[in-house]
Amino acid sequence: MSSELDQIYGVFRDLLDTSTPAEAVKKLEILGVGDARIQQIREFHEQQLLAIKEMEEPRVAVNGNRETWYTGPRENDRAWPAIQRELEKSGWASDAIEDLDAASTRVVSLLNHPKEPDFSTRGLVVGYVQSGKTTNFTSVMAKAADRGYKLFIVLAGIHNGLRRQTQARLAQQLVESNPTAWTQITGLEHDFVPTENAASFFGGSNRTHVLCVVKKNATVLRKFARWLESASDYLQQAPALVIDDEADQASVATASINPLILRILDTLPKAAYVGYTATPFANVLIDPAAKDLYPSDFIVNLPQPKAHFGTEVLFGRYALDGEDPEDVDDGHDMIRSVPAEDVPLVTPATRLDADGFTPEITDTLEDAVHYFWLTTAARRARGKGNKHATMLIHTSMRIQVHNSFREPLRKLRAHALDHLDDPEALRRLRDLWDDETARVPAEDFQETKVPFDTLLKELPGVIGDCRIIMDNSDSEDTLDYDNGPVVAIAVGGNKFSRGLTLEGLAVTYFVRAASAYDTLLQMGRWFGFRHGYADLPRVWMTDDLHASFRHLATVEADMRRDIDVYLHENETPQTFAVRVRTHPVLRVTAAAKMQSAIRASAAYGGRRIQTRYFHTRADWLVDNQEAARDLVRRAVAAAVTRDSRPRDGRHVLHGVPHTDVLDFLSRYRFHENSQECDSKLISAYIQRRVREGSLQRWNVAVIGNRAGDTTKEFTFAPDVAVGRITRARLHNLTNEPDFADIKTLMSRADAAVDLADARHGLEEVELMRMRREQLPDTGLIVLYPIDKDSSPSEHRKKSREPLAAEDHVIGVGLVFPEFGPKDSQVKWDGSYISADLSGIRLEDNDDEDLRTLEGEDAA
After folding, report:
1. pTM metric for this prediction
2. Helix, strand, coil distribution of the chain in percent, nearest 5
3. Exposed, middle or buried: residue 644 (CB in 10 Å: 0-12, 13-18, 19+)?
């Protein structure tokens, strides 16, 4: 760009501060800039916008008619550069700041230009629990302020603690660096209180940005709505950005909060509402046709930050369709089991039992507390990372239960201090430390193990400094990280389960049950960043909770991939409904929030279905063996061609009639927890495709180990035998005595077994291309004989155990050819739900939560 053109473009960018892009072009014309120059300016500006639109991260689904206007920060901005400097001082890495800059720029680019005459925007930003969402929306607010947004309303959860924490963060990062540019309507110690003459904050003479951080409390929001309404004549001059932190909580389908948020938005002629959440299940199930908070304009899917401890890191997950299961990690060995018999000792069975309840310091709770002190001592010895150290005990939402832990924990602390010179006590501590550091090697996280004798020097100081805190709405002794390093064991409930950051969290003891995905995930305060001690976090929980979180890790990955489909398929939030996997026991979200949800339709085109759950009892397994043998015998008789490679453990029978496959599906018994393996649904889909001319023929493959040793073979039919394969099971996290979860069955290579010239290491895209070209209308069914005595390999022993089935297991994989965007669909009875888009043209809220929503505690 020439220097003259560069100067003119600078003028154009300055005009964008007071004008929409169209108005800025008109002003250039008035200034006498020629048509050719203006066209060059417009083309160059479009290139800047295109670079933002085509960012790889974050992924964005956007309503097609939205215009992008924001091209990023400028040299003379004040709010964003101040945040940048603050983050640099606090030790943020340059690449992390660059990622934040890019993500916040993308979100701002999806807002409306503040000089548009009126607008009402609905957006959603999906992050991860404890992943820096607050820093992201603070950066978005800063950049919006730099471009001319005036009123900033932050709906900061439903508890005073989170509201205060958010107010402090915003004051530090936005206000303190530019105090003359901001007016705070709320403060650290008080929520919104109406002031006289609301109009004075929004009239032309007041050029400051207005900041309000309010709880989602009916009394507070009602006062705030009335206060805004009293200034309605002046709000046209106050483009507003409403940030809804924890947007799935209280904002959706609540009798009091939801209408008040909508009332506030209706009061503002120019308002952009952006919800932030790590658990968007409720938000994507809102009725898009209703006048509500459905993110109809955009959804932003923030990437998981580097070094973030997410659900997968701790719990592992299952492979999604199209992934090679061997590429999906089992998670780190950081979860410790709390036996079912311990639960009634640390939490009362019913509400009536809460009064007078006294918890026991069980062996697992004692181990958790001792490990917390050990790991804090080790962190002190390392001398790096977060200066705070916190342990969370979360067994109940009831305040009297929290308080009942005070004396037992104090006695445990006193006993530990008194016995630090006891050889037997030291031996137990040493054994605990050596066992834990062997199960999770420090080297895996580029750290070095702290020897026990080294941390022992720090241990008396750690235990002596440790505070026992009951942090709930009745407690005066709360966590306060502002006045020096904290070492604390915090006992609490709902206050910790929504947004509140626990600094230096290293150990969690968690046995509280929850009935919904979002409630359970938000309780996971152990997610986040563990700089300098990534090898040390541990979670003690029940096996049932462990299993639920593994399922949730899969749900989360699946949902985020579904959101990414928007971008790849050029879909918008109005035309593509995010699907959410369901669970046999857990609800997706509170019942009231699912009123507009429908069962998603299923189309199997291009998908791979595989069994991973099995019963281990003989009768069930033998029935499946007979169904598989019968299918192979029929296939041998009916196949058009046959490719047998017993040395490779492979037999492929080509061109088998679909009726044989349907007969097999009617006899083979999938485990009832295998929701995507629904025989009736799969059969209905095949029959529909057959009527449309596809899937009339199938290839049947048998895959195992090399044949030859008859003692290790499984014979399906004469001349069709393979060696049995090994599939150890994950540790049984259920109470079912005959349940096995093998996690991994089918590899990508197996899905290509019937393709010609399929090379080893085939990528997913290439595999799908070859299937389209070679077998566009043919399905593949693969049978695997799994040895009943399968044991885990050496490197899998941490997460696996012997299969221990009563007979050999038959695993099944199904590969469906792609059928394009108009694939036939059948109603899915239980695996997914989604929002109902038909109206578009072109653990529940706990008792304490409900009291907060409806109550008068507005302070």
Report:
1. 0.70
2. 40, 20, 45
3. middle
